[in-house]
Amino acid sequence: MGLIRLQDVHKQLGGQVILAGVTLDLHTNQTAALIGANGVGKTTLFRLIARQLDPDLGTVTISKDLQVGYLPQEPDIDHTATLRDAVAAAFADLLKLERKLHDLADQMAAAHDSPALDPLMAEYDKLSARFDAAGGYRFEQRLNEVLGGLGFRTQDYGMPVSALSGGQRCRAALAKLLLQERQFLLLDEPTNHLDIDAVRWLEKFLAGHQGGALIISHDRYLLDRLAERTIELTGAKVYSYVGNYSQFVRTRAERQLTQMRQYEQDREFIEKEQAYIAKHLAGQRTNQAKGRRTRLERRMEAGEFVLERPTDATAAAKIRFDDPGKQAQRGKEIVHVEGLRKQYDDKLLFSDLDLTVFSGQRLGITGPNGTGKTTLLKIVLGEVEADAGATKVAQTARVAYFAQDATGLDPERTVIDEIISVRGDFLERDARNYAARFLFHGEDPFKKTSQLSGGEQSRVRFMKLILGAPDVLILDEPTNHLDIPSREALESALAEFKGTVITVSHDRYFIDQTVERLFVLREEGHRLFAGNYSYYIEQIERERAEAEAAAMAKAGTPRKGGRRGSQTRAKDQPTSPFAKMKLVDLEAYIAEREEQVAEFNERFADPDVYKDAELIMRLRVEFDTVREELAAAEQAWLERAERE
């Protein structure tokens, strides 16, 4: 088991203390989450482990021969190569071996019937065995698996990296890292730029990773599924908790409650002791008072008391939706769409789409990128015209729209200006107080919106949205750019909101906390589920299992070449299954297995296959079984052919 150890590490950047006396052990048999507010120093900690920074004090040690793979938020990847070549660089050693094999093959052809042929053949056999043992004959399959799982199509492979978008380059760098199969992974926001299908694929890939990992992510659903340990970085210190993110939240809350109770008990005791000392120091009990004072001072110096009031170190915006007043009657239609169709050029987004949202309901909309989620919202809002169908929004509804991008902000306005643009009755003092609820303190309210980070701009837009007192919220990826505390604040606010919510999101945890119905848009169609994201996953997995069971029952026998078939033969025929076969039958068997291998290769060339991690794992097992059977049959044929 490999180990990464940070011992009493101190680090300052720009005069700011980032880490102060941090001691931490990370193991290759464990996946851990690293969490903390934006800007607290999580990436700095990663860069120290990756040897990109040196500690000011303390040590960072890594076990000998432990390979660490690091994915930064802005990864570096060869811009001069094509997508395929840039990612295939992960197989540099295999590709080098493959070139040697090709060279040897050329030399063998040139040395035909000469004495030099035998040593060349021996060298070729040795290199071929090394190539096979290292997975050389499967690297194309693995390359397709990872690129397909992360949302790339085979037609993308020839694109130069320089022509890819920033998000595509990040996905390419992630693909390359995953294919390198490092023993320990440092992943800094790996789900950025991934849609919901790709995130789910990555989650399953990492669950099968044979090694350790430390993950920085705002995707709490991912952290719940993968993390066995949660490490919080706050106040330049780290605190380690057993369990995933949800367990961490519960444990941290219990710890804070315990600390608060201890603080109140200690404060009460100290106040009583100080009152006694003050009352009796100059009286008849002066000796007792002096003794108590000495003991109290000694205990305080020894750190036996909690002297500072515990605070929640994770500052979050205080998002609260004001009561919009009279609400629409529960059950009243707010949004109704019927027979919607939308197509851009040759790309059909959706057709025959029907959907009704009633007052007080919370509807989530999700699905892979490019399926028309944002377009659907804009059709409802009247910003985009449908090709067919009808849309109706209740005339009395006060609709507020939160777009993905920072629309509605004037780059020359300050935060205060933006607030007053919605509430003209606010004085500057009122605007500053309101801005403070959203973590704009000091001179921050006087900054222009163009100077703000993405997360800060999102908070300004939420301020303006809330000040409009809406009763219908239409939100497009509202958690983008928000750190975890701010996401949780938004979820709490939406839980108290009395109106109607329609939200597009890839944030699975947010969907689980917020919606009661989920509308899933996919290329193959759309479907409404009467529950949240976890309910949706349970439903489709149950339906898939039932469909597979029905297909097996209908077939009556296991699939050709599958593991069950080979196990049955192994049980019935402990000796070689080819021993009593006629040579012509053996040749037919080999031809059948070769045909199956070709069929598998065709399936592996389909990028849609790699979107289903469970399917690809099953196919790989079956493919390996068929290859083993083919190899055994070919060996048996050679032996029989020599005898006959």
Explained architecture:
The structure is a single chain. By secondary structure, the protein is an alpha/beta fold. It folds into 5 domains: 1-67 and 182-243, Rossmann fold (3-Layer(aba) Sandwich); 81-177, no CATH class; 248-301; 333-539, Rossmann fold (3-Layer(aba) Sandwich); 557-643. It is 45% helix and 19% strand. The protein has helices at residues 42-49, 83-88, 92-110, 117-133, 139-149, 166-180, 196-207, 220-226, 245-280, 286-301, 373-381, 415-422, 428-436, 454-467, 484-496, 508-514, 533-555, 563-572, 583-604, 613-643; strands spanning 3-13, 16-27, 31-35, 57-62, 68-71, 184-188, 212-216, 229-234, 237-242, 333-344, 347-358, 362-366, 388-393, 399-402, 472-476, 500-504, 517-522, 525-529. The protein has a 6-stranded mixed β-sheet, sandwiched between helices. Residues 557-574 have low confidence and may be disordered.
Keyword list:
globular, 644 residues
Provide a brief overview of the structure:
The chain is 45% helix and 19% strand. It contains 20 helices and 18 strands. It has helices at residues 42-49, 83-88, 92-110, 117-133, 139-149, 166-180, 196-207, 220-226, 245-280, 286-301, 373-381, 415-422, 428-436, 454-467, 484-496, 508-514, 533-555, 563-572, 583-604, 613-643; strands spanning 3-13, 16-27, 31-35, 57-62, 68-71, 184-188, 212-216, 229-234, 237-242, 333-344, 347-358, 362-366, 388-393, 399-402, 472-476, 500-504, 517-522, 525-529.
